[in-house]
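Methods: example folding runs. The two proteins below were folded one after another, and each record is reproduced exactly as written to the output file, sequence line first and C-alpha cell line second.
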Amino acid sequence: MKRLRLVGSAEIRVMLGGISRQRVYQITNRRDFPEPVAQLSMGNVWLAEDVEKWIAEKRSDLD
C-alpha cells in the first residue's frame, strides 16, 4: 500500500531552500500551484508529489 505523503508550508519552505514564510504564501497562492488536498486549522496541506513535480517544472521561474 502506498503511503500518502503530505506537506505544509513549513515543508515547502525547506523544499525551496529555506525561503521566507511570506514567499511561500506568495508561491502557494499562484494560479499554477497545485490545489491543497485539505485545509486544516494549521493551514493548507498538499500532496508532496504534486509539489515536487511543480518545483521541478517551475524552479527556474522562481529565481
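Second run, written to the same file directly after the first:
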Amino acid sequence: MNGFTILRGVQHYVGKVRTMRNEIRTQRFMDNLPADIRKDIGWPDMYAERRRHGN
C-alpha cells in the first residue's frame, strides 16, 4: 500500500463526512422553515422519497 492509496482513502472519507454534514445542515434549515412553506415544497416527503431511491 503506497502513500497515494492511503491519501485517496482519506480523501474519500473526508468527502463522505462533508456530505453528511451538508445533509444535516440542510435538514436543520428546512425544518426551521414555516410549515406552509415546507408543505409547498414537499419537505420532507420528497426528500425521504429521493433518499430511499439513492439519488
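Comment on the second run: Helices lie at 3-31, 35-41, 45-52.
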